[in-house]
Write a structure and sequence with these properties.
single chain, about 290 residues, Arc Repressor Mutant, subunit A, D-Maltodextrin-Binding Protein, domain 2, 3 domains, 12 helices, about 45% helix
């Protein structure tokens, strides 16, 4: 009979967190049959059922919940002690990061470069997504860290502020010459769940312009091209629009709003993985230049 090892406990904790053998296999960079074999070994060694199937996923039995509760701090403490002893030089594993488009274009490249240099054993999987989905994915455990627009208020998340981005109303020179941001000008924005969409609506109201239908696009780079083609006006992050403003493809067509978009890095409030926590600490030191 196999003795239980650290990888058995790690497997147990990730199945409990993610809810399926398949998700745990992806997180641990192994196969679903390997995960199933580990669970059988745990249950055989302990002589108890840890999981029961429920629909497409699995849930912990009462004794399984107690085992996870007892083992999680022990595993986290052991991993943390080993990393501290080695000055984090031996940190290894896959860390899944979700990022918004603005963060991906500003601080994220520098962050990834620093991780590669200082923690070569850590592999980063980065996905670009919208804020609402990033929050859901971090809370559910399918992503470890998120770089997102804030402020974020959730008891399930721990956040650190990494800077603010200024916004500017832009249009093509032709659109601006025809009156810029006026009642007849089509307005574009990132989707309605974005903080930029909220500021867009507030800015229109403060300008005394009538409420109108707002065209949406979930990609800032694409929206820059749409507006530069003369198809309307939009509120853009100044950092991403700067090259097209410098070339003259886009010009300011209305006073900029006083509101800025703040950005934060977030992890689960109960995160215990020492590698994820070390990357969160490092991420909190980076800055989005506004």
């Amino acid at each position: 009979m196999h003795k239980l090892a650290i990888y058995h406990l790690e497997t147990l904790l990730w199945i409990a967190r993610l809810g399926t053998f398949r998700a745990a296999a992806e997180r641990l960079n192994t196969t679903q049959p390997a995960i199933s074999a580990r669970v059988r070994e745990i249950e055989s060694q302990l002589g108890l059922a840890i999981f029961r199937r429920e629909g497409r996923g699995v849930v912990l039995t009462a004794r399984g919940r107690q085992l996870v509760q007892d083992c999680e701090p022990l595993l986290a403490g052991l991993e943390s002690a080993l990393l501290e002893a080695g000055g984090h030089a031996g940190a290894a594993g896959v860390v899944r990061i979700a990022a918004g488009e603005i963060a991906a274009a500003t601080c994220l490249p520098h962050f990834a470069s620093a991780v590669r240099k200082d923690l070569p054993g850590v592999t980063l999987h980065i996905d670009l997504d919208l804020t609402a989905r990033m929050l859901q994915n971090v809370l559910s455990g399918t992503r470890d860290i998120a770089f997102l627009a804030g402020p974020v208020a959730s008891p399930g998340l721990r956040t650190a502020r990494i800077g603010e981005v200024s916004l500017v109303w832009l249009a093509s020179p032709e659109t601006a010459a025809q009156g810029g941001l006026q009642a007849a000008t089509p307005v574009w924005s990132i989707g309605e769940h974005s903080p930029i969409h909220r500021v867009t609506c507030e800015s229109l109201q403060m300008a005394g312009l009538p409420v109108r239908a707002i065209n949406t696009c979930n990609n800032v780079a694409t929206m820059l091209g749409i507006v530069a083609s003369g198809t309307g006006a939009a509120l853009f992050p100044e950092t991403m629009a700067r090259p097209m403003m410098k070339s003259g493809a886009l010009v300011e067509c209305a006073p900029p709003p006083s509101s800025q978009i703040c950005f934060e890095v977030a992890v689960r409030s109960n995160e215990s993985d020492p590698v994820v926590l070390e990357l969160f600490r490092r991420a909190a030191m980076f800055s989005i230049a506004g």
